[in-house]
Amino acid sequence: MALDANSVKHDQLKKWVNEVAEMCQPDAIYWCDGSKEEYDTLMKEMIASGAATPLAKRPNSVLFRSHPSDVARVENRTYISTTKQEDAGPTNNWMAPDELKAAMKKLYKGCMKGRTMYVIPFSMGPVGSPIAKIGIELTDSAYVVCNMHIMTRVGTSVIDVLGADGEYIPCLHTVGSPLEPGQADSTWPCAASIDDKYISHFPEENLIWSYGSGYGGNALLGKKCLALRIASAMAKREGWMAEHMLILRLISPEGKKYHIAAAFPSACGKTNLAMLESTVEGWKVECIGDDIAWMKLGPNGELRAINPEAGFFGVAPGTSYKSNPMAMDSIRENAIFTNCALTDDGNIWWEDGDTKAPAHLVDWKGNDWSPETKEAPAAHPNARFTAPASQCPVICPDWEDPNGVEIDILLFGGRRTTTIPLVTQAVSWEHGVFMGASAGSETTAAAIGLKAGVRRDPFAMIPFCGYNMGDYIQHWFDMGDKLGSKAPKMFYVNWFRKDANGKFIWPGFGDNSRVLKWMCERIEGKVDAVETAIGFLPKVEDLDLSGLKVTDEQMKELLTVDAEAWKAELPEINEFFNKFGDRYPAKLKKEIERLTANLSK
Prior knowledge:
Helices cover 28% and strands 21% of the residues. By secondary structure, it is of the alpha+beta class.
């Protein structure tokens, strides 16, 4: 166990590790080798300390409870630090690099006293893949090490590929809670004040610094920090795409394979779609990834994608055998649960799952909880599970192909009760970029503390784009120019349209496979479509509705284009794009002008 630092040939890496150790002053330095023995040893130590609770009902699985102040991504403390503020753009928090580094270096000084600094060599993507990137995370959290074991490829093979002078992304993380000699540790150490939490990205240097939080994407720096914020900036410079997208394979009865990458804002069924159980006879879905897609041009000019992650880091509440049976089967064993409730027989429980709350639980804060006396949810609304993707029953056999899979369809969507039809095909790449850029979901004031309406989330990347969003949208147009005739077709879906009584019209879940089938038949030229002001819509007879209890009237509603509703929405869309100022892409303006003209015909 433990990688021998003397075997590391990369002198610059060793120099950086020593510099950080001098600043943070850990008691020891440990180089991770990624072995099962390493994972098991660290987990046993955390169980012995009381930080982790083993689950009798789930083999090799544990439950952690975080500090109540450290339960989610802290967007208001997440920074994109570029030399010029306009390069970060209006949708990101910005601070000048010198100012941000000075503030954080003060906090970093001695921050790992009494702790071990773990050196985690990890690969985002299959080790050695031409689409993969290597990161090195330094952390004083064993919880982070174990989660990174699951979420990335950790170990000596990464160091071997890195060699003596390979490129890596330095990622520095600390919980920000040094220990004095003899001081007892917390079961979840973190910075006491929200003002001392920083998740900082320096895209011009491919550098990530995180301080004060031990939770999720704040601490597992391979996830949103590297795989999206830093990678998106790298992708723009290098001519590829780092996207907040699931990847799935749809297989026809004849054995034809189609690959779909899809972006949805939160609460729009992204994970459910990634692990879809098809209800169309003969059609089968396989999961390649549930959250992130890295896409590069292949040898023949086609767009090829990998899932850079090795595991699932999913929201637990709401996950059930009804909503996502494949996810439920993926977390039966070898899983880490965070902020779920604990049952008396050694299992986990959360709201909106498959079972009613038992008479007694221990809630996510460690307190006794019962249905009669509950004052708050037993599981935190952002409670999580971490599990290996390889455990998913419908994981694609090619999900770790280092060359990736060729993408046939790019899909966007949002949660809209009106206006947006069930499915629309873009008439061109430029039109598809407009679809993705204008994507959004309805919300309420209670949900996000803002006025009710549509919250725009271009390509589901608002929290994760590592540079100016206007430049990011322009990069999509540039990629279309590179792809030319090899570009995937683009579609927009809305599973959430409601009737006059406020009930969902489309059944959703597995029946969404019927819409995916139509998309595949469209790109094969097997079915025609109806040309409308907003794009191509299906003919009802071309959608496979066999066995589905949906009336003709309901289908008409699902495929209606309300021109007046669209006209009413255009000023708000344009207002959103106008915030990008001189970074507002000209091609995007043309698409709005084209749509405006179409709606007036």
